Write a sequence for this structure.
């Protein structure tokens, strides 16, 4: 790009911002909302079975079979208006699995948010470490058909979205190594 065009572009950009910031706030906000991408926000919970030792290694993960039944998924759902991601995660866990968590029992995963730019949604991800023998699972038969614990090295067929999400945390049906304990969800 030539220096002359660069200077012209800079002046036009400055002029555009000058006009934009003179507009009433409500109008500027509407313009921004029209021009920027919209994302749907959801909460996902990786519910991990660690047996009776809360600091022990992850043994299994809780997965759900939901309509249309093309693969297993994670407990998750869209946030309600005005709801925080943590509140949504607590609510979704209760609705889909019957497990009633207190907010302090859920830990933000690393990464805590996964942005799906093609589908324009953001998953906020939390982990919960439980003793599977001490929790009672309850599904409604409509939104969720089945909830079951699966060993990390023997995962069933997952939905594409679930497989992609789990890969961010070193969990994959084709990768049986799952990384070190520090890379596992809920360990760091």
């Amino acid at each position: 790009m030539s220096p002359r065009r660069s200077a012209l572009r800079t002046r036009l950009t400055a002029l555009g911002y000058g006009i934009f910031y003179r507009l009433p706030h409500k109008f500027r906000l509407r313009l921004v909302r029209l021009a920027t991408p919209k994302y749907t926000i959801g909460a996902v919970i990786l519910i991990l079975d660690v047996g009776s030792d809360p600091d022990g290694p992850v043994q299994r993960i809780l997965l759900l079979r939901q309509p249309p039944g093309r693969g297993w998924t994670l407990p998750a759902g869209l946030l309600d208006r005005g709801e925080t991601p943590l509140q949504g995660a607590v609510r979704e866990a209760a609705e889909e699995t019957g497990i009633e968590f207190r907010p302090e029992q859920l830990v933000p995963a690393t990464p805590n948010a996964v942005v799906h730019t093609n589908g324009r949604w953001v998953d906020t991800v939390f982990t919960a470490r439980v003793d599977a023998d001490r929790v009672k699972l309850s599904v409604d038969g409509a939104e969720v058909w089945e909830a079951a614990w699966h060993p990390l090295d023997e995962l069933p067929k997952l939905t594409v979205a679930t497989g992609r999400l789990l890969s961010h945390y070193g969990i994959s049906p084709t990768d049986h190594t799952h990384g070190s304990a520090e890379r596992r969800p809920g360990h760091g």
Remarks:
- Helices lie at 3-22, 25-35, 85-97, 160-167.
